[in-house]
Amino acid sequence: MPSPEALFGENHNGQPLVQLRKDPNRPPQDIVLPVCYRNTPWALTVAHGLGFGIAREAPQGSASGLVQIFDEPELWDDIGYEVSSGNLALGAHVTLKRKAECSPVFFTDPDKALINRDDAVAFQSFADVEEQADWVADQIEKNLLEDELLARDILIILPDAYTSKRQFSFIYKALMERGIQSHLAGVNSSRDEIFVNDSIAVTHIYRAKGNEAAMVYVLNADHCFSGLELSKKRNTLFTAITRSRAWVRVCGVGQAQERLTEEFRKIRDKGFVLEFDYPNAAEIKKMRRIHRDRSEAEQKQINRSVSDFSSIVAQIDSGELSPDALPDELLEALSRIVPRDHK
């Protein structure tokens, strides 16, 4: 995360436009609340782990799967983590865990705990969106009939705002088949409220911000696994998971969801800690450039290039074109990206 000075820039005299200072004997301008009451420590750890790509498999030719990271390692301490092993510094290997004092005792004290970590966060993979919708509807029916939750205690989040109306139709149909009402916030309900009595709230990620519920279902999480503007997608996943006050179910379709679930398992199986090699300053700058937001023109250009390349691959696969027809420098570049023994 860039500093306020980097985010807001300087005036004509070279002075920062915004500074958050903590001067002695003066009120601090930046306060980090020490205890997180909104989220369970397990959901928060998973949200940070997936949001930063800490357990993400390194892409071919890359040393790390990280998507983004704090420029200043000490910020991890500010948001409630402590070093379990290693060294919290640029270029060092480190393992981080949530500080016990940064979560309320009803999460951390076994004698007082209201929720256990095995039930707080769960991932589910499905073959298609219909199967996903049916499973979620079954779970919500159980939440209402057996778990004593109210409709207002449940929130369904769709990560992709552009397809939210179409995706809502699947969950709406599945819930109606079980006699459960639902609404897409701001579309077939008031734009000023998310939750409605006796109706399950469904919302895209932008309307979900600032709202929370005891039980959160994140649908189509596979949308956040890979692709262009990956920092934005992983931030979307972080925001969705942290809407949960108690339980969160992260659902998705296909191989992308399976691989996202594997990231979760790595974090869970290590005891909900974050273990990674902290990149140096140059590596952080590079990953920020790779995963940055793209303009519409940039996206169109990349999509055209991918389409053209896919067409060439299809012609080679069909035997219409020989690899020898490609320029030697292109073949050499491809061999560096995908070695010949790569399976």
UniProtKB/TrEMBL annotation:
Pfam families: UvrD_C_2
Organism of provenance: Roseivivax lentus
SUPFAM superfamilies referenced in this protein's UniProt entry, alphabetically: P-loop containing nucleoside triphosphate hydrolases
InterPro entries cross-referenced by the UniProt entry: P-loop_NTPase, UvrD-like_helicase_C
Gene3D superfamilies attached to this UniProt entry: P-loop containing nucleotide triphosphate hydrolases
Superkingdom of origin organism: Bacteria
Gene Ontology MF terms: helicase activity
Region (Disordered): 1-25
This protein's name: UvrD-like helicase C-terminal domain-containing protein
Keyword annotations: ATP-binding, Helicase, Hydrolase, Nucleotide-binding
UvrD-like helicase C-terminal domain residues: 201-250
Record's keyword annotation contains ATP-binding: yes
